[in-house]
Write a structure and sequence with these properties.
Elements lengths: L13 H11 L8 E3 L3 H7 L6 H11 L7 E3 H13 L8 H11 L6 E3 H10 L6 H11 L6 E3 H9 L4 H19 L6 H10 L1
Antiparallel strand pairs: 1-2, 3-4
Helix pairs in contact: 1-4, 1-9, 5-8
Amino acid sequence: MARKEEPKIQANNELEKKIMEAFEVFDHSGKQVVDVREIGTILRSLGCCPTEAEVQEVILATENKEATGNVPLINFLPYMCKALIEHRFYPASAEILLAAFRYFDKDSRGYLTKDRFTQLMLEEGEPFSQEEFDEMMQTALDPVTNNITYEYYINQLMVAPKHVYEIADVFEEERKRLEEAAPKKKRASELLREAQKQ
């Protein structure tokens, strides 16, 4: 007997809609499931900046336990709503990025050479993959000087969308407002005490 297909998940709010739109780009089967290897890209397309360890954490928390290797939307959506409301994977501020670049610019020249930047990105800390690095260099590298003028590069990064976090903030504020406006449920013991006083 064929397995009954689950009904498609529908977005209930703007935050869920944004997450689902990013997810669906990589849902090649149309069954609201993606390959685990796409999770990092989905997170980054939402404007998140997770480390590889954080990407693995998301995969571990959302991966289909019966059919490993894929992540169903039904697991991913609530996890990501909570993560975005909590501002997890939030991009670093311009000030923090500038301080980091200045730390590696020992001569205070305002730029890093292509070789030094390559060494930092591929060999130190949490290294980038070659593909991630090549993509970053398209924006970072000044084709005339062959250097990374970091203040200019940081300005380029800051135009990246943080829109999904703003949506998460609005969603959370609305949820709290509705929660506060809802009549408080009283415990049975409170109701009994009130009845006894009358």
